[in-house]
Amino acid sequence: MEHLRELRTRLLRAIIALVIGTSIGYAVFPYLLDVLIAPYCQVFETSLPNCNLIALRPLEPFSVRIRTSLLVGLFLGGPVIFYQLWRFITPGLTTRERRFALPFVILSQVMLALGIVAAYLIIPQALRVLLALGGPRIEALLSASEYLSFFIRMCLAFAIVFELPLVLVALVLVGVLNAANLTTARPYAIVAMVTLAALVTPTTDPVTLLVVSGPMIAFYELAILTARLIERRRRRRAR
Questions:
Q1: For residue 22, with 0-12 CB atoms within 10 Å meaning exposed, 13-18 middle and 19 or more buried, which class applies?
Q2: pTM assigned to the model
Q3: Distance between CA 87 and CA 201 in Å, rounded?
Q4: 174, 134, 161: which is closest to 218 by C-alpha?
């Protein structure tokens, strides 16, 4: 019962943080929408005041505003939500695990933000390629809901890519992987990362592919280096 009461308290605080963040997102939606559709406007080379998305259903504008506000709420309330989760699981962790938990929570937020920024920079090029595939006889008029869904998918894909090094380092810390495993799997991992980059960025130019796959490969090498440092420190401690 004590654990359940603690869980209820942590969930309540997390929900309050989410509600506050969502309310802020709902209030700033008109200004945030200008930022969201800026990549769309770059594709059509239209100035921001004259660049608009269309709505195909009566409730679509409201739905887009709610979904966008909820995403803002998750992003703004993320630190509080992760902190409440961390505080809930802290009693079950060892002293060493507690020391690693909080930095991982902070770094996960930082890498998430970097992934979103990278996606924001790639989206215009991806839209140009996708909208040109149908030829000149097909005029692209995106609805607000379709564009937002595409935007979210791209941001989510890049967020997963940027969280890769943290996942690998975490697996090394818990003993699932080691530097030798990562080094042996490097050729296969590079092929998999380039393939994933090609799927995430539906463009045909090599520059965009390099921009996406390059950081993934660099993150993988960083994870190998970190694994070697962790293992070296463990050997010294054992001696």
A1: buried
A2: 0.72
A3: 37
A4: 161
